[in-house]
């Protein structure tokens, strides 16, 4: 029984547990770091463990052993990209040539434990919406190519394309896929790519050397359209519509009061809307920054704050200024009147003052 181990394509490190079943099928993205763990009862004393690799077009061994005098010996005939660490095997920058069977054999005081996995290296292809994508099935074609089958597991559908050479050397073809897709030998061409062409493309080649299978994940980039405006509340609103994958939006200056909304429609098109709250800030303008894989550089747009909020703020500021001006004027007038009365009193004749 095969167990398909799910792998996150966004992670740079993939850790796979091979102890659950005796044989696993595991997949890793080409170019990523892979860590295979051989889960066995370590016992009280680990005597040795050995990784035996039967790869696409080669084989090698990595071993570790504790001798009777407690000295440790290690050996490797594998690529320098592969290293052992206790009961795990690390593969840097995985390649198609790393595909094959990995068997771990552990010997300790409790006995011998064997775990086997089949590693599939997943290739990733990226194209832009509307362009032509070319997918190649990287296998040894052998002297005789008997059949090529492409099995497509897309966003919301699946289909098959196949070419088969019959005994009389005639070729039969079959396709349940879009007419934009056509196979030629061991390659597949997709014209005018759409977002819903994204998915897993499985190529199966049969020749006199056997059956070879390759997996390719196709990503279709769609550039979003961007808007920057003030909403009804006078708050800056920045949006990236129709992008795949959804864009990332940030603001300058940074604020803890930002509302981001991510939406996807049935066509897999992403929409991201980010709102910068005007409350609690004294900024007169802000900058929206939109990042997307289809952009060489992030998009930046500046907007001056205004709208109703700004009007209310201006009105409030004007009222405060008016009150301060009135108070200052009253105080100044009072001081002026006080000084004037004082001078008049000082200038009165002494007889008038005494009379009063």
Summarize the topology:
Blueprint: E1 4-5, E2 13-17, E3 23-29, E4 33-37, E5 46-55, E6 59-66, E7 72-76, E8 82-85, E9 88-91, E10 100-108, E11 111-128, E12 133-136, E13 145-154, E14 158-165, E15 171-175, E16 181-184, E17 187-190, E18 199-207, E19 210-221, E20 225-230, E21 236-243, E22 248-252, E23 258-264, E24 270-276, E25 285-291, E26 299-304, H1 307-347, H2 350-355
Mean pLDDT: 80
**Spans where pLDDT lies below 50 across 5 or more residues:** 1-21, 307-315
Q: Number of DSSP strands?
A: 26
Run of helices and strands: EEEEEEEEEEEEEEEEEEEEEEEEEEHH
Helix content: 10-25%
Total of helices:
2
Q: Looking at the structure, what is the overall shape?
A: elongated
Strand content: over 45%
Radius of gyration: 37 Å
Largest sheet: 12 strands, mixed
**Head-to-tail CA distance between termini:** 121 Å
Structural class: mainly beta
Describe this structure in words.
The chain is mainly β. The chain contains two helices and 26 strands. The chain has helices at residues 307-347, 350-355, and strands spanning 4-5, 13-17, 23-29, 33-37, 46-55, 59-66, 72-76, 82-85, 88-91, 100-108, 111-128, 133-136, 145-154, 158-165, 171-175, 181-184, 187-190, 199-207, 210-221, 225-230, 236-243, 248-252, 258-264, 270-276, 285-291, 299-304. The strands form five sheets. Strands 1, 3, 5, 6, 7, 10, 11, 13, 14, 15, 18 and 19 form a twelve-stranded mixed sheet that branches. The chain has a four-stranded mixed sheet with strand order 2-4-9-8, with no helix packed on it. A hairpin with a 2-residue loop joins strand 8 (82-85) and strand 9 (88-91). The longest helix has 41 residues, at 307-347. The radius of gyration is 37 Å and the shape is elongated. The chain starts with a strand and ends with a helix.
């Amino acid at each position: 029984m095969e167990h398909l181990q799910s792998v996150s394509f966004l992670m740079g490190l993939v850790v796979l547990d091979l102890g659950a079943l005796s044989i696993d099928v595991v997949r890793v993205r080409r170019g990523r770091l892979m860590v295979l763990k051989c889960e066995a009862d370590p016992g009280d004393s680990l005597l040795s463990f050995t990784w035996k690799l039967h790869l696409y077009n080669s084989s090698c061994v990595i071993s570790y052993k504790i001798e009777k005098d407690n000295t440790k010996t290690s050996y490797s005939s594998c690529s320098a990209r592969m290293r052992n660490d206790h009961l795990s095997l690390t593969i840097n920058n995985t390649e198609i040539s790393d595909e094959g069977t990995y068997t771990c054999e552990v010997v300790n005081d409790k006995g011998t434990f064997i775990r086997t996995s089949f590693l599939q290296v997943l290739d990733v292809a990226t194209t832009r919406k509307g362009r032509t994508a070319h997918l190649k099935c990287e296998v040894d074609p052998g002297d005789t190519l008997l059949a090529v089958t492409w099995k497509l597991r897309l966003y919301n559908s699946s289909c098959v394309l196949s070419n088969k050479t019959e005994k009389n050397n005639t070729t039969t073809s079959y396709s349940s896929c879009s007419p934009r897709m056509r196979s030629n030998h061991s390659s597949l061409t997709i014209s005018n790519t759409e977002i819903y062409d994204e998915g897993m493309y499985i190529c199966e080649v049969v020749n006199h050397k056997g059956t070879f299978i390759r997996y390719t994940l196709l990503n279709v980039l769609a550039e979003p359209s961007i808007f920057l405006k003030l909403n009804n509340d006078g708050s800056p609103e920045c949006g990236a519509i129709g992008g795949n994958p959804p864009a990332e939006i940030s603001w300058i200056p940074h604020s803890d009061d930002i509302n981001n909304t991510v939406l996807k429609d049935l066509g897999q098109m992403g929409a991201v809307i980010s709102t910068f709250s005007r409350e609690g800030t004294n900024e007169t303008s802000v900058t929206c920054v939109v990042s997307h894989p289809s952009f060489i550089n992030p998009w930046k747009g500046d907007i001056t704050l205004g709208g109703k909020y700004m009007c209310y703020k201006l009105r409030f500021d004007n009222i405060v200024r008016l009150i301060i001006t009135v108070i200052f004027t009253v105080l100044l007038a009072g001081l002026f009147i006080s000084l004037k009365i004082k001078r008049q009193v000082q200038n009165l004749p002494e007889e008038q003052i005494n009379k009063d």
